[in-house]
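To close the chapter, one final illustration. This time we ask the reader to focus less on the individual chains and more on the assembly as a whole: which components sit near each other, and how the overall shape emerges from the parts.
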Amino acid sequence: MGCPIAIRNLTVRYDGREVLRDVTLSVKNEFFVIIGPNGAGKTTLLKAIAGLVDAASGCVEIAGKPLQDWPRRKLAKTISMVQQRRSPAFAFTVAETVLMGRSPYLGLLGHEREEDYRITTKAMELTGISHLGQRRVDQVSGGELQRVFIARALCQTPSILLLDEPTSALDPAHQLHIMDLVSRLQKQEELTVIMVSHDLNMAAMYGKRVAILKDGRLEALGSAEDVLNGAVLSRHYGCPIMVEKGPVKGMMRVTPVPNKYARRLAGAATQVKVQVTCHTPGDYPMPDSTLGN
Amino acid sequence: MLAGCRFSRTRQLGLILLMGIVLLSSCLAAILTGSSHLAFSQVIKALVGLDAGTAASTILWKIRVPRVILAATAGASLSLGGVVFQAILRNPLAEPYILGISGGAASGAIAGMLAGLSLFPGVSASALAGSLFTLFLTFTISTKTANRRDSLLLGGVMINSFCGALIMFLISMSGKSEIHRILFWLMGDLGLAGSARLYLLLGTIPCFFVIYCLARPLNTMLMGREGAILLGIDVKKTSAILLVSASIMVSIIVCLSGLIGFVGLVVPHIFRTVLGPDHRLLVPACLLGGGAYLVLCDLAARVLPSNGELPVGVVTAMIGAPLFIILMWKGK
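The assembled structure is written out below.
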């Protein structure tokens, strides 16, 4: 367990366009979060680790072995990935879909054994979808489908878990449920978890280390407290973002600030001791309509 | 066993056994029926070889049995072909005939026949070359255009029309006067093969086996290319093996029975509705059920007209084309 990932000078191109540029990163046995604006290359980085896209240069090593030397099936026992929402083409039931996570462990004709059923049942319990087993995957809600795919990823009993915006379709209760689950599994099973998220609060509260990816480059890397600071976030996202310490130790609150509050906030910031998000309000483009506020 | 998995291993085996019985009964019904009226006892005696040399025995072994074997194998191959294309393209409307694969095989076969090649390896090889070429063409068209689902089907229709025109062109250029036979062949006819050529059907058996062994990867492919890779499947290699196996099967069937459409659409659709999309059950069910379906369609083609018989392709198209339209409505 705790399979180390080493990425060295990784560059990935789609049709000649560089999507990842010279990314170097190692992650091992931790809850690692990648954030960054849309189109920054976050999903591509996850895909490169999972072997779904080829490197133009540089390399990805899993447990010290270059990715291309891993047999596909062995890799599927080591890495599982929850992709952004995708719609199933043919209607398996929820249970059948989750059970498919056992695929890399099955023989040629692919019949499951008791152990496979046991692991599947457990994964469905953990993600809270046991009651949905007999429903068809095209008839469950977006949030339920997301949990189905998380359960399937757990069924692969991986040592590396890649999550691409796992909570984007979930309500707050299920967001916390899934994040707590992943966080607990990460510690118990010593998993290496890499999560891509736009939810900066989740990144702040669950990520041990956080990286910011922008235009395919790794722009910041460090502990959640260091990277998730107002100035850094505001600069990279290009909008005012406020970071506050929560009432409880270790808790953080990250809020994108609408223009109508941004100026007043910059003035008030020093008094209420929140981290100042913007140096001057003029740093950000503001539409004329907000000027009157 | 897990709640929510539709069929346990035992129930799967039971269902497969049941389909086997259905197939055998349809074969028996087809053997018992024909233009010359043979009594049940005559047929049974001839089948077990008790009165060799009689007219009944000749009719049975030279005409009815070969025809039923061809119908069953053709139905099985075309249904499995449909299953494979539907899974790989993630499109329930994909089918060898609609995608133009059968048309390609037919063009190749006609070209081979007109060039005076023998059935094996000559005509079979040219049919396979034709089907692989159209397969390649269909895939290129569908991946290079924006709306994959529609372009795949439209591309198939165009390839089909082109192949039809090509076949007519080849025939009229050659000056051979077998137009009536060829027209029947184009509509799909199981009566033309003759027992002497049926050895070619042996070629489909390894294809059945390969596809059955790859039933689990076929399941994961329903999750899309990336989904399948993440579940440990070498998608490129597996798809190539599956597509080539399907093309070999279809080419053999086209060589022997011409263009029979829509079997690969109707049979997998029925079984997917009833049994669900798990290929470990769907593949054997379509193999046996597809066989039974075409045997029964052929029986209808022989029995329905007051004199003579219909090409079986007429029957399958009359069932299949409306279903295709219904599926397209539902899919939107």
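Chain B has one domain: 18-331. The interface with chain A takes residues 1-6, 9, 90-92, 212-213, 215-216, 219-220, 222-224, 226-227, 229-234, 272, 276-278, 280 of chain B (CB under 8 Å). With these observations in hand, you are ready for the problems at the end of the chapter.
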